[in-house]
Amino acid sequence: MTEPALTPSERSGIVRDGLAVGVATGAYGIGFGAVSVASGLSVAQTCVLSLLMFTGASQFALAGVVAAGGAPMSGAATALLLGTRNTLYGLRMAPLLRWRGWRRAAAAHVLIDESTAMSVNRESTAAARLGFLTTGGSVFVLWNLATAVGAFAGEAVGDPRTFGLDAAVGAAFLALLWPRLKDRRNVLVGVLAALVALSMVPITAPGVPVLAAGGVALLVGVLARGEDPTEIPGPGDVGGHR
Amino acid sequence: MWAAVLLAGIGCYLLKLAGLSLPERVLSHPTVERVADLIPVALLAALVAVQVVADGTSLTLDARVLGLAFAVVALLLRMPFLVVVVGAAVVAALARLV
To answer: What is the pTM assigned to this prediction?
Structure first.
């Protein structure tokens, strides 16, 4: 397939946008590091989560469930369920990025909300790859550095309530959810899921209510009718690029 | 804890790799696509609710609610992610001082 090469100004525009998102999102890793340590994970466990899992919502979910007193494996299950959305992004991005072999295996690691958002609307494979790599790469480097800084700071703080870190977790989840609330069905599912989770809090072990709320998605998804385009974040949905 | 960290970390990577490797038609069933789209919505909404008003196995209203209220306002004003999260923490911390 022949595609026109990117002009220098197109290249620098894509790189600049990617780096801007990388800086904004990466900085937020400080919050994750602090919250994770406050939740009871060690500094090493916190840093391994950012290096190995590298998908913010899942990392916060694991820390959040553990902080609420849930079993670590309940946290892992919630993290994995949230991680399924990266599979959707991958299915949508694969024909655009067209990588094979080790390049695909490496690219998969930085397949996240931000790298998808900054490359899904590009018109050529070259532009999509450049947007994907600059965004994914800069988020990865800065997110991990910031996680380490936040983790050591969190360790120094001690009690998460001191600086309102416990409130930061709820705000983080809301910020991640926010772009999806433009759709009325999603608002309905969100409200139902929140109610289901809260009604389960007094009667189940911590960690279970969130997993049970996932059942709302299953129920509504099966009962609903009509086509619904897969939700892929766009450039307006990621932090620092609004 | 280490087992959960490693298992979930490796699992999340494999979910990403599966997305880039599987043929696109696995998503072609509308019900599968809908459920897959709704799972993050349901889980994130539940996580917001539980993080803000659950305390172990009881429900409670405290400074975290004020933090969340700040987050809502900040998001409505299209503030950056970091402002939303740090601001919510600061609001909750200040409320506890009062």
So the answer is: 0.88
